[in-house]
Amino acid sequence: MAAALDRIRVGSAPDSWGVWFPDDPHQVPWERFLDEVAEAGYSWIEMGPYGYLPTDPARLTDEVDRRGLKVSAGTVFCGLHRGPAAWDAVREQVGRVASLTQAMGARHLVVIPSFWRDDKTAEILEPPELTREQWAHLTEGMARLGREVRDTYGLDIVVHPHADTHLDTEEHVERFLDATDPDLVSLCLDTGHYAYCGGDSVRLIETYGERIGYLHLKQVDPAVLADVREQGLPFGPAVRRGVMCEPPGGVPALEPVLAAAQRLGVDLFAIVEQDMYPCAPDRPLPIAVRTRRFLRSCGA
Question: Looking at residues 272-287, what average pLDDT do you find?
Answer without folding.
Answer: 96
